[in-house]
Amino acid sequence: MLALAALVSPAAAAPASASAPARAAALSAAPAASGEAAEPSAAAEGLRLPRPTGRYATGRDTLFLTDHARPDPWVPSAGPRRLLVSLNYPARPGTGGGPAPYIPREEARLMLAQRGLDDPAWPGLVAATRTSSRTAADPAPGRFPLVLLSPGFGTPRATLTGLAEELASRGYVVATADHPYESTGTQLPDGRVLTCAACDTVDAQPDATARRKVLAAVSAGRAADFSFLLDRLTGPAPAWRHARAIDPRRVGMAGHSIGGNAASSTMAGDRRVDAGVTMDGTFFDPVAARGLGGRPFLMLGTDPGHGPGADTSWDEGWDRLDGWKRWLTVRDSGHFTFTDTPEIGEQLGIEDPDAPLSAARSTAITRAYVTAFFDRSLRGRPARLLNGPTPGNPEVLFQRP
Asked: PANTHER family per the record (predicted)?
């Protein structure tokens, strides 16, 4: 089999020397030897994300937004900054069209190709991954907290679909943003595909210190993206037709890898964000020395890769966080454990010997702890899961530096 490491970005996983999303790594995972057949997998029947577990059906809309106040930071000649945003939300059962698409085929092809996965059948399989959200569904009655999601550097927003659907099924509106020129591919509504100019900028830096500075700028730039997105979702004349479903007084943000750093960057500059989560993201843009105004923050990462002393930006960030906080690490996990990658990889017959945690456990842990955090932080609900280790989640370690 291929190793699941082929689907991850070593740059994002190696905080001290991060340079760009995986150009070579996949490269650490070669195809099975000639003549060795992959084991049978679900790919023959089509890929599917696990169904969400909440009580709501889920809908999905897509927004294409333009921030005329800012030029694109990576390709200024492209004009103003643009964002593609998926909105998952609690929906009325039985409304809407068919299942929302997972990812455009060309985005899937570019993501796989960058990781050395060039089976010609796979882009179509990944693009056709079945989701649980219906397009153009009617929203469920009520107003719901808003959660912003940001993907890893070089990674399409689609890879956080499973988490977005889970949160929507639990009663959250979820806005997941693609940041153009920061992903292997972002397909615009007119069919053009923007590739990762920011990756090229990182690659061009002469040393690790210079690369870290660029990655810090990525995080800070995403903070500006999300402040603009909040304006367009919760301000006057909102861009989303169902904006009344959002409760603007309850806003959280989570992200994977650099997207997790963007959660703290956004909170530092925008008081509207009440709580944040990083999922295995190095703080290239450090947590503000003054803290985050007492707002809660969850650090959820790999073990031992993000245990105390492993990524010093987490030790420093922990000391600066001045509100309710938790530092959790997950045994046998990998950098992409907290995304859809384990589910899709396992169905394609891909494994990562360095991250043996199963797809089912990866999904269950991510969903449970992220949801518990937002339930506590945005809804004031008890979250016993966050009080300490539990027998049902032996992989999850509570770090107390």
From this structure: PLATELET-ACTIVATING FACTOR ACETYLHYDROLASE
Closest to 273 in 3D by CA, of 236, 248, 245, 256: 248
Closest by CA position to 215, among listed 198, 197, 227, 229: 198
**Tokens of residue 124, six digits:** 């179509």
271 DSSP assignment: T
Beta bridge partners of 278: 255, 299
- The stretch 100-117 carries a mean pLDDT of 96
Q: List pLDDT tens digits, range 118-131.
A: 899 999 999 999 99
**CA 228, CA 234: separation in Å to the nearest integer?**
10
| 3-state SS track over 309-338 | CCCHHHHHHHHHCCCCEEEEEEECCCCCCC
Q: 296 CB contacts (<8 Å, ≥6 apart)?
A: 274, 275, 276, 323, 324, 325, 373, 376, 377
Q: How far apart are CA 238 and CA 256, in angstroms?
A: 27
Q: Full-prediction pTM beyond 0.85?
A: yes
Which single residue is written with the structure tokens 């001045």? 322
Is the N-terminal amide bond of 304 cis, ω within 30° of 0?
yes
Task: List pLDDT tens digits, range 144-163.
Answer: 999 999 999 999 999 999 99
Please tell me the predicted confidence (pLDDT) of residue 326: 98
Where b means 16+ CB within 10 Å and e means fewer, 168-199 reads bbbbbbbbbbbbbbbbbbbbeeeeeebebebb
Mean confidence (pLDDT) of the chain: 90
Tell me the domain boundaries of the chain. Answer: 2-9+45-398
Long-range contacts, stretch 311-315, CB < 8 angstroms, 24+ apart:
311/15, 311/16, 311/282, 313/15, 313/282, 313/283, 313/284, 313/286, 314/282, 314/283, 315/401
Backbone angles phi, psi at 29, to 5 degrees: -125, 105
Q: Which superfamily is assigned to 2-9+45-398 in CATH?
A: Alpha/Beta hydrolase fold, catalytic domain (3.40.50.1820)
pLDDT digits 0-9 by tens, 309-332: 999 999 999 999 999 999 999 999
Beta-carbon neighbour count of residue 353 at 10 Å? Answer: 10
Strand partners of residue 174: 88, 147
